[in-house]
Amino acid sequence: MGIKVAKFGGSSLGGVEQFQKVRAIIEADEERRYIVPSAPGKRHPGDHKITDLLYLCQEHAQKGIPFSEIFELISTRYLELSKGLGLSLDLVPILEDIREKILGGYSAEYTASRGEYLNGLIMAELLGYEFVDPADIIFFTQTGVYDPEETKKMVAQTLANVERAVIPGFYGSRPDGGIQTFSRGGSDITGAIIAQGIGADLYENWTDVSGFMVADPKIVNNPKPIAEITYKELRELAYMGARVLHEEAVFPVREAKIPINIKNTNEPEAKGTLIVPNGEDIHETGMITGIAGKKGFTIISIEKAMMNTELGFGRRLLSIIESKGISFEHMPSGIDSISLVIPDNQLDKKLEDIVEEIKEQLKPDTVDVHAGLALIATVGHGMARTPGISAKLFTALGKENINVRMIAQGSGELNIIIGVETEDFERSIQAIYYAFID
Ligand code: ASP
Q1: Ligand 1 centre distance from Cα of residue 14 (Å)
Q2: 323-326 own/partner pairs: CB under 8 Å, 24+ apart
Q3: Atom 8 in ligand 1: which residue has the minimum CA distance?
Q4: How big is the CA angle at 306 (ends 303 and 310), to the nearest 5 degrees?
Q5: How much of the chain is helix, strand and coil, in % rounded to 5?
Q6: Alpha carbon distance 222, 244 (integer Å)
Q7: 184 with 52: CB under 8 angstroms?
Q8: How far is the CA of 200 from the centre of ligand 1 (A)?
Q9: Residue owning the nearest CA to atom 7 of ligand 1
Q10: How many Å lie between the centroid of ligand 1 and the Cα of residue 136?
Q11: Cβ of 43: how many Cβ atoms within 10 Å?
């Protein structure tokens, strides 16, 4: 029998009905042996996430402001869940203990982690699986850095003797025994760590969408789903703003070459998206995998005759921005020109200073600043070594009368990145989408 680790996000565990769907999913496949739940999420748009409410309680407690009304919302949610699911678990003393600890000054990390802890207890009884507290198997250093070596050992050793377990997401412990959480959305990471530690065949990540789409549905009407994507492609798209999975969740399973399947709790028959290692069996199909982009960039263009022969020009330019604590995104260049593409949020109020210093130190013929740039990445393994891809892409943009201000291509031919005016952002993504997908 294979091993699947299944992580369920907050939207899959909001209320009784969602828990019942989750139980049916787990019971439908006996390989789903290790279950990682998040805390209950929103049941409807105006609802609260339990984790948010817990943080709020802790903030109130810290300032000496009463928080019993907020805590009441939390208790009610869990008690309703337990009753609605017909469980015998008595949550009242456990909730009371948590409330007292928050009142007594326990940390924000401890408080936030109780959302997953309580959901784990509920899930374990509902399924008849063993409850394994991640505080006993997932470790951080005293300063809060995740410790993969100790964790891997302990996860493997502990779970080897447990055939089926529920392990709450989002937290572990520090050497002093204190609770440490991952960053928000971190249950994705827990799922990946468990999958790696136990050597799972598949890591299922259950959420409320049927996987990734080729483009953002807010921009392209009804975009096609992505059936299969490599870790590398995913990283490119995620970096450009596409987001379903916590970025750090990819590393443990990628290292162990375990595929991740993004699945939809509300549509379990849909195949979802399979994230796979970069295998040799990926064909150069001439197809793209996905399109994603970000707004908010500025381009600084510098021209100087005979720049190409001036020794150290690029280095001096980069040290100017480095000295201001700024990193660049792209650096397209010509014979006598070079440009830097920089995210606006890094520039802050430093732009004038930078331009002054470039003029002073590099004595260029011109320095030109153009704000309001958006970057769009078209990503796909299938594009590599396939002639005609960029022709197709730029023809589509040309037909729409879109001016391309910058072009960059990653060295693995995995992506083509373009810079366009912010107002052309949505139109560009649509044009690229329809050029490749019918
Ligand atoms: N419940 C935590 C959060 O809201 C962790 C998670 O859902 O993955 O961030």
Answers
A1: 12
A2: 324/350, 324/353, 324/354, 326/350, 326/354
A3: 185
A4: 100
A5: 40, 20, 35
A6: 17
A7: no
A8: 23
A9: 185
A10: 19
A11: 16
H or E segment and range at residue 338:
strand 337-343
- CA distance linking residue 438 with residue 433, whole number of Å: 8
- Provide the H-helix boundaries in 85-186: 92-103, 108-127, 148-159
| Minimum CA distance residue for ligand 1 atom 6 | 185
Ligand 1 binding pocket, CB closer than 6 Å: 10, 38-39, 49, 51, 115, 169-170, 184-188
* Predicted confidence band of residue 250 (pLDDT cuts 50, 70, 90): confident
Extract the tokens encoding 40: 């209950």
Q: Which atom of ligand 1 approaches the CA of 49 most closely?
A: 4
Nearest in space to 70 (alpha carbons), one of 46, 51, 85, 97: 51
From the alpha carbon of 183, which atom of ligand 1 is closest? 9
Q: Ligand 1 center to residue 151 CA distance, Å?
A: 20
Quick one: which atom of ligand 1 is closest to the CA of 170?
5
Q: Which residues contact 1 (CB under 8 A, 6 or more apart)?
A: 30, 31
Q: What is the DSSP letter of 162?
A: -
Higher per-residue pLDDT: 108 or 349: 108
119: its two tokens = 């959901």
d(CA 108, CA 368): 47
How far is 276 from 274, CA to CA, in rounded Å? 6
| DSSP-assigned beta bridge partners for residue 294 | 375
Q: Are strands 366-379 and 415-421 parallel, antiparallel or unpaired?
A: antiparallel
> Taking Cα atoms as reference points, which of 53, 135, 150 lies closest to residue 102?
53
Ligand 1 atom nearest residue 182's Cα:
5
Atom in ligand 1 nearest the alpha carbon of residue 115? 1
Residue 189, SS3? helix
Q: What is the pLDDT of residues 126-141, one digit of tens each?
A: 999 999 999 999 999 9
CA distance 133 to 3: 20
What 3-state class would DSSP assign to 371?
A: strand
pLDDT digits (tens, 9 = 90+) for 191-216: 999 999 999 999 999 999 999 999 99
Q: How confident is residue 350, by pLDDT bands cut at 50, 70 and 90?
A: very high
Please name each of the domains of the chain with its CATH number: 4-276 (3.40.1160.10), 290-436 (3.30.2130.10)
Top mutation candidate among 35, 50, 170 for ligand 1, by most atoms within 8 Å of CB: 170
Q: Is 247 helix (H, G, I), strand (E, B) or coil?
A: helix
Closest of 323, 327, 332 to residue 342, by C-alpha = 327
Cα–Cα–Cα angle for 107, 51, 179, nearest 5°?
35
